[in-house]
Amino acid sequence: MVPVVGHQAPEVEKAIRAQFPEAALRFALQKEQRGTADAVRSAEGALKDFSGRVLILYGDVPLLRRETLEALVAAHEAGKGPLSLVATTLEDPTGYGRVLREGGKVTRIVEHKDCTPAQRAVRECNAGIYLVESSFLWRALAEIRPQNAQGEYYLTDLVEMAARQGPVASIDADATETAGVNDRVELAARARVMQQRINERHMRAGVTLQDPATTFIDEDVTVGADTELGPLVTLAAGTVVGRNVTIGQGSVLTASFVADGTAIKPYSVFEEAKVGERCIIGPFSRLRPGTELAEEVHLGNFVETKKAVIGKGSKANHLAYLGDAKIGSKVNVGAGTITCNYDGVNKHLTELGDGVFIGSDTQLVAPVSVGDGAYVGAGTTVTKNVPPGSLAVSRSPQVNKEGWVARKKERQG
């Protein structure tokens, strides 16, 4: 692939490489913006050793489908000419180059500004997408001259040159599919169409979207059948969701994996998290990178995890922070529990064995471990390892001062 860049070339090249990190890219620089033919001619050096068909298209047609390009290739092969193109029929063709025909055959394209009144009445327009034999392309580009009102080198001149050598095949594409992007309003409009396509594909595959208009699913996301997504759900960056999953309103899942049968309640946020089967998460839970949950884990409202590996059937149902933690199976973490994992310089690990019970408002000061089956009393600050089967309590003794309130009021008058 040879992207032709010009204005703000370094920034554009950087953005393209970031979007397609594994693509084989050869960038070509159009030093001066002198028209579309000049832009394509800038790529000749990058393709000097290539012999075959060259697909030319604009960089701002995000709705173009693979099926359309395959149809273009088929038409080109059947026509056996040096060039084939994609056309589109518009109700209002203002601003678009017109595809002109004689006896039904494509003869040339004339840009809107250069059209006669009769030519402007033509509604078949150039979509700017071509398939050209390289043996014809570079030779023809060298012959193009700026004989137009704008003084630019028009790629559309290739069509008339090709028509003199053989038939110019064409296919018709939907106007929505070939629409470009010139500003942020048009970008938003194209994004809506793309999202509608993606959402419809998932719904036809058996996924329920309660409100498709507010559901945002990236192209590379996978969702299993019989999964249900609430309004305002976002699934991004290659997230994989299994079958029979429910994801509540306002939840955002990024680069995460969710296994079959899990229920995610509203307004939960996942980032690079892995969630096992039949878990119950949320509402208002946050799973940060490195979170790995086994089957049947429950994380409730306002629970945050980070680099936490949690075993089967463990629960933290209320108001907890579990960071840099390794938690066994059947563990109960009480409300208000936190792992104190950062000492100001380094992060440290907290380990909880199988069947551990952590009382409410507990602070686990890492590095620390609690052995299998141990209990930690509510309000405890754990600074030492707790042996298996033990009870750890570190709260201060309670003192009741009878009559204290009355004496206080008496002193205050």
TrEMBL record:
Gene: glmU
Keywords: Acyltransferase, Cell shape, Cell wall biogenesis/degradation, Cytoplasm, Magnesium, Metal-binding, Multifunctional enzyme, Nucleotidyltransferase, Peptidoglycan synthesis, Repeat, Transferase
EC number: 2.7.7.23, 2.3.1.157
Subunit record text: Homotrimer.
Extent of Basic and acidic residues compositional bias: 404-413
Domain of life the protein comes from: Bacteria
Cofactor(s) needed for function: Mg(2+)
Domain Mannose-1-phosphate guanyltransferase C-terminal: start-end pairs: 215-307
Cofactor annotation remark: Binds 1 Mg(2+) ion per subunit.
Region of interest called Disordered, as start-end residue ranges on this chain: 387-413
Residues at the catalytic site: 318 (proton acceptor)
Residue ranges of the TM segments: none
Main location: cytoplasm
Name this polypeptide is given: Bifunctional protein GlmU
Matches recorded under InterPro entries: Bifunctional_GlmU, GlmU-like, GlmU_C_LbH, GMPPB_C, Hexapep, Hexapep_transf_CS, NTP_transferase_dom, Nucleotide-diphossugar_trans
Residues where acetyl-CoA binds: 335, 341-342, 360, 378, 395
Catalytic activity: alpha-D-glucosamine 1-phosphate + acetyl-CoA = N-acetyl-alpha-D-glucosamine 1-phosphate + CoA + H(+); N-acetyl-alpha-D-glucosamine 1-phosphate + UTP + H(+) = UDP-N-acetyl-alpha-D-glucosamine + diphosphate
Pathway where this protein functions: Bacterial outer membrane biogenesis; LPS lipid A biosynthesis; Nucleotide-sugar biosynthesis; UDP-N-acetyl-alpha-D-glucosamine biosynthesis; UDP-N-acetyl-alpha-D-glucosamine from N-acetyl-alpha-D-glucosamine 1-phosphate: step 1/1; Nucleotide-sugar biosynthesis; UDP-N-acetyl-alpha-D-glucosamine biosynthesis; N-acetyl-alpha-D-glucosamine 1-phosphate from alpha-D-glucosamine 6-phosphate (route II): step 2/2
Binding site for UDP-N-acetyl-alpha-D-glucosamine: 30, 35-36, 58-60, 97, 111, 126, 182, 288, 306, 321, 332
Class in the EC hierarchy, top level: transferase
Organism: Stigmatella aurantiaca (strain DW4/3-1)
